[in-house]
Amino acid sequence: MTIKISIDCMGGDHGPSVTIPAVISFLKQHADAELVLVGLEDVLRAELKKHHAEAHPRLSIVHASEQVTMDDPLEVALRRKKDSSMRVAIEQVKDGKTQACVSAGNTGALMAVARYVLKTMTGVDRPAICSIMPNQKGGPTYMLDLGANVDCEPHHLHQFAIMGSVMVSAMENIPRPTLGLLNVGTEDIKGNDVVKATSKLLQADHERGALNFYGNVEGNDIFKGTTDIVVCDGFVGNVTLKAVEGVARFFADTVKSEFTRNPLTMLGALIGRGALNNVKKRLSPSRYNGASLLGLRGLVFKSHGGADAYSFEWAIKRAYDAAKNDVLPHISTLISELMPRNAEVPEAPASK
Amino acid sequence: MTIKISIDCMGGDHGPSVTIPAVISFLKQHADAELVLVGLEDVLRAELKKHHAEAHPRLSIVHASEQVTMDDPLEVALRRKKDSSMRVAIEQVKDGKTQACVSAGNTGALMAVARYVLKTMTGVDRPAICSIMPNQKGGPTYMLDLGANVDCEPHHLHQFAIMGSVMVSAMENIPRPTLGLLNVGTEDIKGNDVVKATSKLLQADHERGALNFYGNVEGNDIFKGTTDIVVCDGFVGNVTLKAVEGVARFFADTVKSEFTRNPLTMLGALIGRGALNNVKKRLSPSRYNGASLLGLRGLVFKSHGGADAYSFEWAIKRAYDAAKNDVLPHISTLISELMPRNAEVPEAPASK
User: Which coarse location class describes where this protein primarily resides (chains A, B) (predicted)?
Assistant: First the structure.
C-alpha cells in the first residue's frame, strides 16, 4: 500500500533549501511512499530542478500562497493566513489526500491550526506533543507532553498516558509498553497533588489490565530507559527537553573545543574519529527529530525549526512509520474503549 | 577570621571512608578553616589514624551515637534519632559553635531536621534547595528550588528569587546578579498561571530596583548562562536536575564505550587524553557538588549521597565560601528589607 504524506515545504528556519533535499533523499529510501509538497509552486519547482527531481513520479506539488513565519502569533496563523503552506498541508490530511503531514513551522501555530482543521479525537480533551529521546538501552524513550499543555489536570495526564502507550505499541511493536509517571522520587508519597492523583488513575488502569503502569520515574530514568513511555505535563516536559538539549550542546561544544585545542589533541581526534563519529551518531538530536501531535483526527508531525535536511528526513520517516503502522485508528479505538470505562466509577465485582 | 564548619561524617553512601579524606584534603587547602567532625568517635578516630591526621590542630570530634540512613523516613530522622550525626552537626550551627554544616545524608531528612533545629528565617515561608550548574560562559548558573517544594505559589517563587539573588551576589561578588524565571518560552504570555503571576511580582521588584529580573528563560538557558540565577518550583527543578544528570552520564558512558571499542580508538583516546580529561573536568558534576538549603537561620549544605572524597571536598568548600562571604546575614537583611515591602500593595506615586 502506498503511504502518502504532505510536506509543508516552506516551514522552519530554512524552508525549501532543507525540505526539498530531505524529500528527495526520503523517496529514494522508501519505494512505497508518495509525497505531496505544499508551498509556493515556483519556488518548489526551482528547488526540485536544482536536484534534477522535477519529474519525480512520486512527487506532486500543491500550491499555497502564504507562509506562517516562526514569529507569527497564533491568531495570524489561524485567522489571517488561510492559504499558508502549513494549513494546506494539514488540509490534505483532513481531505484524505494524505495520511500524515510534516511541518517545521512554529509549534504553537502548528498545534492551533491542526486542532482547528482536524479537530480533536473523541475522548481526548487536549492533544499533546510526543517525541522520543535516546536511552542507554539503545532504544527510544517516548515522552509526552512536551509543551502543548502547561496546566494539566490528572485526567489530561491520564489521556496522554493512553495515547503514548498506543503510540509506542504501534510504532515499536511492543504489545504492552511500560509507562512511567515523571516525578521527583519513585515512592508513592512523592510528588505534587496532580501527579499523585494521576498515579491513582494509572494504577487503576494497570489493575484492570488496560495500561502497563510501572509507577513513578525520575528525570534520569528517561535516559536509563526504565520505561518505554514517560508522561508529564507540558511545562515540565518542555523545560526538561530544552534543558537536555542545552546540556547536550554544551557537551558537544566542549568536546569539540578540547579536541581542537592543540596539534596533539587534534591528532587524537583524527585517530579516534571513528569513536567521535559514533558518539555523535548515537547522541545526535538529528536522529530523534519528529514530534507527533497526538490526539487529533489526523497525523501531524513537527520537525525542529532549525533542522537540516538529514534531520528533516527523520521527521518525514516518523510520519511515514506512524501512517504505515496505523497509529491513528489504534489510538482512536483504544481511547474509545478506555475513556468511557475510565469515566465510570468501576464497580466492585459482585462477591458471588 | 577562622571559619568553623561542622561535618556530618557518617552521612552518604560511603560515610567516613569518603568524608575523612575530604576533610583532611580540605584543611590542607584552607589555613583559616577549622572543622568539627560529627559521628561515632571510635570510627572517626580510626579513620583519621589511617591518614595520620589524629592530632590535626584544626580538627575536633563531637560524638553522635546514631546515623540517619539514606532510607530512613523523615519521622525516624526527626523524632527517633535525636543523637544522629546529621542532627548534632546542625545543632553545632544552631549553638554558634560552627558557621555552617555539611551532610551527604538524605535530602528529605536533612531539610526536615535542619528546619526543625534551625527554624526558618523571618520572612521566608519555605526554605529551598539551591545548587549550581556549569554554563557555556564558564561560570556557574545558580538554580533553585531543586526539590524542597513540589507545590509552589507565586510568593514562594518570589522568595526563592530574592534568596538566590543574595546568594549569588555574596558568593560570586556580583552586585546585581541577573535573575531568570524558568518557563516554556521567553514571551510574557507564556507559561502556567503560577509562573505568570510570579513574573509580575519579579517585574515589580525589578522596577523598584530591588531585583535584576531578566524575564523568562527556557531550559537551555541554564547551560547558556543567560542569567546568573534561574528560579523554578521544586518539581520542575528536581526533574530537570535529574534529567540533566542522566543525560550527562549517558554522554560520558557513550564516550567511554566508543573510545575503548578497538585498538585504534584506544590510541586516539591515549593521544587525546588531555582533551578527554579536560572535558571531564569541565563537565564533571563532582565540581558542582554542594547544594545549599536556603531560608534557614543557619547555613546547611547538602552533598550528593554518592559523592567521592574529591566531590565531598567541593561541598565543604561551598559551605566555607558561604560562611566567609556572610551569606546568611546578607539574606536575612535583604529578606527583611524586601519582604515587608512586597507584602504591602505599592501605592501609586502621588501625582504632585
Answer: cytoplasm
